[in-house]
Amino acid sequence: MSEFRTRFTSLPLPEREQVTGDRRHFLCQSALNVRELSIKHFPGRAPVELVGHDQTILDLMQRISKVARFDEPILITGESGVGKELVARAIYLLSGRAKGEFAAVNCPQHQDGNLTVSELFGHERGSFTGAAAERKGCFEAADGGVVFLDEVADLPMSAQVMLLRALAEGEFKRLGSNKARQVNVRVVAATNRPLSAMKVGESFREDLFFRLRYFAIDVPPLRKRGNDWYLLLRHRLKALQDKHGVERRFSDAALYLLESYPWPGNIRELNNIVATGYAMADDIEIEPRDIEGMLGRTRQTSDDVAETLMAELGHGRRNFWTMVHEPFLNRDLNRREVRSIVRRALSMSNNSYREALGHLGVDDSDYQRFMDFLRHHDLKATN
Asked: How far apart are CA 19 and CA 15, in angstroms?
């Protein structure tokens, strides 16, 4: 038995003797309770599983269990890919609100404030261009449940004002309506920005920030969770084997490679690497050659990513909107990478944003849209 497999069997997994080979081995008791609740309330859906036995995840589960029973808002912080939405779903299940909806809103999805307000609170017919019929928003749809605001730091100011009123007064109005509506929802918000970087009082209202942060939960990055990376790897691998019916395991050499890896993309990245290794392996064992391409790509610095994208943009093959704007909104690019791209374009343009458009494949007519995007998402280049 390899060093890694010996280490795994020595980890404190209280359910290991009860159900050999079961996925529940990777969950602590409180996380197991969440999993069982998700199966009970939503049979047929993928269960909510917070995998890990490191003390950081045990402390996280304890905090989740304590705050879940209240109705006040919660602000979840943590890097991209750590599982903030899973934490929100665990809170939803433990709060006893599973009879209501869990309505998730990706706040950066719409730059147009009207569209975001409509997503949250609904609209009346004709309230803005394109509003051909009345529409319920997430707050109405989730009556009795939870509204999850993902990347809330990117919420447009008009939506922030209406959200503050909904939290403070317990009521809201659809866009284009004078009728106040009341619903019973709990708001759980999340952001990948450190609280110190949210520019509270500038791009984000201070009164809304403190109202959302009635309770605060910080989800630790994978690199600070000890051996949990190995449990997550096994968990993801077992899920793939159950789905496809083909056994795979990571070779010792591949495990040595992963043990020292810093996981900049956290659990999302780990899942992608496991899936790639599973698909690319020629035999039962997943070897370093099956995953090294993924590791090489994720090890790129922000400047490396910017250099690669700028080379394509400079040759005019694709434009900023498809290569940078869309991947950023889909979270395939982060803020550091976009800022690095903008910084490179400015260095080629006498630090003029207007002149930089040509290097980014942006039409002159889109200058205001480009600047609004940078300002709204705090993407203007910094030294």
From this structure: 7
Both 323 and 352 in one domain: the answer is yes
State the Cα–Cα distance between residues 5 and 231, nearest whole angstrom: 11
What's the pTM value of the predicted model, to 2 decimals? 0.75
pLDDT tens readout for residues 183-221:
999 999 999 887 666 666 677 899 999 999 999 999 999
Residue 196: domain span: 71-80+98-220
Residue 324, token pair as written in the block = 């940078």
Report the distance separating Cα 221 and Cα 218, nearest Å. Answer: 9
3-state secondary structure of 301: coil
User: Pick from 220, 240, 273: which residue ends a domain?
Assistant: 220
Q: Which residue has the tokens 């077992």?
A: 238
Asked if 75 and 214 sit in the same domain, the reply is yes
Q: Tokens in use for 247?
A: 């056994």
Read off the pLDDT of residues 231-273 as tens digits, 9 standing for 90 and up.
999 999 999 999 999 999 999 999 988 988 889 899 999 999 9
Encoded tokens for 77: 């912080």
**Where does a domain end: 201, 220, 239?**
220
Contact criterion met (CB below 8 Å) for 72 and 215: yes
